[in-house]
């Protein structure tokens, strides 16, 4: 049996860390006798330069024909002043929409060795282990109209959701909670937003289908505060697109570096896309010093969610945890005691551990 993986390196450090994930998958392939086939496609700034579009048709078709997609990151200052349809992040939004990736799963777990690396107090983050389930294809980032009016002096963005869009993400969150500590926190702004009122109603309706899960609701502003004052209280957090975007970056401080955080973006029946939570990090791109961990852990999520290779996924996670707890770290975690290593050295340590 062979798994087809579409690689979308993108820009900046995306083009470095994606090959770390590939190396680790090849180690898994050898050890567990699984066959992975890789095919690379352009997306983001590199695609704009080569094809004059951030998302070429060949990339969409290649992803649809694959069993799963690994994405590095897109963007960079070179394209910052481009018109909006020629911006790298258009490629990212486009591929999420094309594959109908409605659910973004971001696990956030502090490694013992890195507790001190967070600006938060160790006693606050010790034991935190949560999963943010973010709606990814609705809400403000996709709502229409989104435009300037009155000669550019007025603007409108639209936050819209349908019942069906909310139900499927809420179901995904309940099911994720069932596999974890069975606690679900739904985050909204139901005191102000109509969309949040429907969101809250649907979570309440769905409770009876998952009687083993305890549910509470938090307003997003309170959730933002509690995430860094008492993160241990959370198991699964479910929320709409923009709230999830903000809260998941905030949650990254629990782990000490954005370079540690993986993510999975899932469709109802189609291919999943796996990418680190960080961006293309132009400030360190090309230097060989990026932390490949988030990308490698994203590949582990791919094995688990798209290929049902749980043992193999666990092997990657164990290897990462062992190497990190031995003190090996890239420069983003420079306050850590232990040995400073490059992207390829970190990758090789994880490969060797596997
Ligand atoms: P960023 O995540 O690229 O970088 C933020 C800071 O974290 C930088 O100092 C960077 O050096 C550091 N960092 C991030 N990942 C790291 C890693 N793996 N190892 C070591 N250090 C790491 O976010 P920023 O600077 O806001 O955006 C840079 C570009 O990336 C922009 O063009 C932005 O649009 C794009 N971006 C793309 C995303 C994606 O492709 N999913 C997500 C976020 C931003
Ligand atoms: Mg973000």
UniProtKB/TrEMBL annotation:
<feature type="binding site">
    <location>
        <position position="221"/>
    </location>
    <ligand>
        <name>substrate</name>
    </ligand>
</feature>
<feature type="binding site">
    <location>
        <begin position="76"/>
        <end position="89"/>
    </location>
    <ligand>
        <name>NAD(+)</name>
    </ligand>
</feature>
<feature type="binding site">
    <location>
        <position position="245"/>
    </location>
    <ligand>
        <name>Mg(2+)</name>
    </ligand>
</feature>
<dbReference type="GO" id="GO:0005829">
    <property type="term" value="C:cytosol"/>
</dbReference>
<feature type="binding site">
    <location>
        <position position="106"/>
    </location>
    <ligand>
        <name>substrate</name>
    </ligand>
</feature>
<feature type="binding site">
    <location>
        <begin position="279"/>
        <end position="291"/>
    </location>
    <ligand>
        <name>NAD(+)</name>
    </ligand>
</feature>
<feature type="binding site">
    <location>
        <position position="96"/>
    </location>
    <ligand>
        <name>substrate</name>
    </ligand>
</feature>
<dbReference type="InterPro" id="IPR004429">
    <property type="entry name" value="Isopropylmalate_DH"/>
</dbReference>
<keyword id="KW-0464">Manganese</keyword>
<feature type="domain" description="Isopropylmalate dehydrogenase-like">
    <location>
        <begin position="4"/>
        <end position="350"/>
    </location>
</feature>
<comment type="subunit">
    <text>Homodimer.</text>
</comment>
<dbReference type="GO" id="GO:0051287">
    <property type="term" value="F:NAD binding"/>
</dbReference>
<feature type="binding site">
    <location>
        <position position="221"/>
    </location>
    <ligand>
        <name>Mg(2+)</name>
    </ligand>
</feature>
<keyword id="KW-0520">NAD</keyword>
<keyword id="KW-0560">Oxidoreductase</keyword>
<dbReference type="GO" id="GO:0009098">
    <property type="term" value="P:L-leucine biosynthetic process"/>
</dbReference>
<keyword id="KW-0028">Amino-acid biosynthesis</keyword>
<dbReference type="InterPro" id="IPR024084">
    <property type="entry name" value="IsoPropMal-DH-like_dom"/>
</dbReference>
<comment type="function">
    <text>Catalyzes the oxidation of 3-carboxy-2-hydroxy-4-methylpentanoate (3-isopropylmalate) to 3-carboxy-4-methyl-2-oxopentanoate. The product decarboxylates to 4-methyl-2 oxopentanoate.</text>
</comment>
<protein>
    <recommendedName>
        <fullName>3-isopropylmalate dehydrogenase</fullName>
        <ecNumber>1.1.1.85</ecNumber>
    </recommendedName>
</protein>
<dbReference type="GO" id="GO:0003862">
    <property type="term" value="F:3-isopropylmalate dehydrogenase activity"/>
</dbReference>
<comment type="similarity">
    <text>Belongs to the isocitrate and isopropylmalate dehydrogenases family. LeuB type 1 subfamily.</text>
</comment>
<feature type="binding site">
    <location>
        <position position="249"/>
    </location>
    <ligand>
        <name>Mg(2+)</name>
    </ligand>
</feature>
<feature type="binding site">
    <location>
        <position position="134"/>
    </location>
    <ligand>
        <name>substrate</name>
    </ligand>
</feature>
<dbReference type="GO" id="GO:0000287">
    <property type="term" value="F:magnesium ion binding"/>
</dbReference>
<keyword id="KW-0963">Cytoplasm</keyword>
<dbReference type="Pfam" id="PF00180">
    <property type="entry name" value="Iso_dh"/>
</dbReference>
<feature type="site" description="Important for catalysis">
    <location>
        <position position="189"/>
    </location>
</feature>
<feature type="site" description="Important for catalysis">
    <location>
        <position position="141"/>
    </location>
</feature>
<keyword id="KW-0460">Magnesium</keyword>
<dbReference type="InterPro" id="IPR019818">
    <property type="entry name" value="IsoCit/isopropylmalate_DH_CS"/>
</dbReference>
<keyword id="KW-0100">Branched-chain amino acid biosynthesis</keyword>
<keyword id="KW-0479">Metal-binding</keyword>
<comment type="pathway">
    <text>Amino-acid biosynthesis; L-leucine biosynthesis; L-leucine from 3-methyl-2-oxobutanoate: step 3/4.</text>
</comment>
<keyword id="KW-0432">Leucine biosynthesis</keyword>
């Amino acid at each position: 049996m062979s798994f087809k993986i579409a690689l979308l390196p993108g820009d900046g450090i995306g083009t470095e860390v994606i090959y770390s994930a590939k190396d680790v998958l090849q180690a898994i392939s050898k050890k567990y006798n699984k066959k992975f086939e890789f095919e690379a496609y352009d997306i983001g700034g590199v695609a704009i330069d080569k094809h004059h579009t951030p998302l070429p048709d060949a990339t969409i078709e290649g992803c649809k024909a694959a069993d799963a997609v690994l994405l590095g990151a897109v963007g960079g200052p070179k394209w910052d002043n481009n018109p909006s349809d020629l911006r790298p992040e258009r490629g990212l939004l486009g591929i999420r929409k094309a594959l109908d990736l409605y659910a973004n799963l971001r696990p956030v777990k502090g490694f013992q060795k890195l507790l001190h690396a967070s600006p938060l107090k160790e006693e606050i983050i010790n034991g935190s282990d949560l999963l943010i389930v973010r709606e990814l294809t609705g809400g403000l980032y996709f709502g229409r109209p989104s435009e300037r009016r009155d000669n550019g002096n007025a603007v409108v963005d639209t936050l819209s959701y349908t019942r069906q869009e909310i139900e499927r993400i809420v179901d995904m969150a309940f099911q994720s909670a069932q596999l974890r500590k069975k606690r679900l926190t739904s985050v909204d702004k139901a005191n102000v937003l109509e969309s949040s009122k429907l969101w809250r109603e649907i979570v309440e309706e769905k409770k009876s289908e998952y009687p083993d899960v305890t549910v509470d609701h938090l307003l997003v502003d309170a959730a933002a505060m509690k995430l860094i004052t008492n993160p241990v209280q959370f198991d699964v957090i479910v929320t709409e697109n923009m709230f999830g975007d903000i809260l998941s970056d905030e949650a990254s401080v629990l782990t000490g570096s954005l370079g540690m955080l993986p993510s999975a973006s899932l469709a109802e029946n189609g291919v999943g896309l796996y990418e680190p939570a960080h961006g293309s990090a132009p400030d360190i791109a090309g230097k060989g010093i990026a932390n490949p961990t988030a990308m490698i852990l994203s590949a582990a999520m791919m094995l688990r969610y798209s290929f049902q290779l749980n043992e193999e996924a666990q092997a990657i996670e164990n290897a990462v945890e062992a190497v990190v707890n031995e003190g090996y770290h890239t420069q983003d975690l420079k306050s850590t005691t232990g040995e400073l290593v490059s992207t390829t050295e970190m990758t090789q340590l994880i490969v060797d551990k596997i």
